[in-house]
Amino acid sequence: MPHPLTILYTPLPQASMHELRLWRCAFDAALAPWLDARQLEHVRRFGQNVADSDVAGQEAPGQILIEAALSRLMARAQLITATALHGSLQNQIQMDSRGRPLLDGWRVAFSHSGRAAFCALAPAGQNADIGLNAPDIGLDAEALTSPPPHVSAFATHELAGPPALPQSAIEREALRRWTIKEAMLKAAGLGLGMQPAHIPTGRFGQRAGRWQGPLGLFGWRSLACPGHWLCVALAGHVPPMQMTVLRQSPHTLLRRLADVPPQS
After folding, report:
1. Total domains in the fold of the chain
2. For the residues of 33-70, what is the DSSP string, one character each?
């Protein structure tokens, strides 16, 4: 990784329901040795008993569940393949008491947009000047085609834009602000245990900021990614301005995962 904080991005396969189930099975089998019991339980609870449905032009609930399972598997595959390249993959991915991923030697966060899987990672204990030795990273991704969250998730001023701004631009800004709230809640380990409307997201179009939350100071930065808004949050520091976003296809990701040497 050329920069200390890297975001990995893999779009979901464009495939039928049956093909998506095959993708999920393939990633599940290849990942099983690298996930502890809690991680396995987490990724396997989506769509296990969903029947195939290939209704043209429709996204049935079953397909949404299969895509949710596949995106979670792909995010973990991104982490395994990236760390294996650095020769530091020695232990399984675990889960902390707040449901966040743990891997020795790395700071990690996952996100899933419904269209792609994302993984943010940074070496632990390095680059203290930008906060990457802090224990908490949060990542959130939202597809630009997603509907904005309910207005109750925002303070009143957050949904007010410049005069004559088209509704589509206001909705896109709402999605960007939502990623900020989600990333900071994840970094703080609060989940949705705190009202998102209470988390500030700065001025209209602001791309970086800080939040003094109940568990300390968190910094955030918004990023553009094809078809998405992304936000990264770090405990104590604003994330660096330059971050690497690396895209790989699902085919490449699965092939690299299969090539990871087994644990000794």
Report:
1. 2
2. GGB-HHHHHHHHTSSTTPPP---TT---HHHHHHHHHH
Percent of the chain with pLDDT strictly greater than 70: 86
Same domain? For 83 and 189 the reply is no
CATH number of the domain where residue 111 is located? 3.90.470.20
Q: Which of 42-56, 106-120, 247-261 has the lowest mean pLDDT?
A: 42-56
**How confident is the model at residue 125, as a pLDDT?**
67
Domain encompassing residue 160: 135-236
Say yes or no: 118 and 205 in one domain: no
Considering only residues 256 and 161, tell me which one the structure prediction assigns the higher pLDDT.
256
Instruction: Report the pLDDT value the prediction gives residue 201, as an integer from 0 to 100.
Output: 95
55 and 168 together in one domain: no
Q: For residue 230, give the DSSP letter.
A: E
Rounded CA gap, 262 and 11, in Å?
Answer: 26
**What is d(CA 71, CA 113) in angstroms, rounded to the nearest whole number?**
8
Tokens of 79: 């982490």
14 and 102 fall within a common domain: yes
CA distance 58 to 54: 8
Contacts of 243-248 spanning 24+ positions with Cβ under 8 A: 243/3, 243/5, 243/6, 243/7, 244/1, 244/2, 244/3, 244/5, 244/6, 244/7, 245/6, 245/7, 245/9, 246/6, 246/7, 246/8, 246/9, 247/9, 247/10, 247/11, 248/8, 248/9, 248/10, 248/78
pLDDT tens readout for residues 60-104: 778 888 999 999 999 999 999 999 887 766 688 998 887 888 898
> What was the pLDDT predicted at 152?
93
Mean residue pLDDT of the chain comes to 86
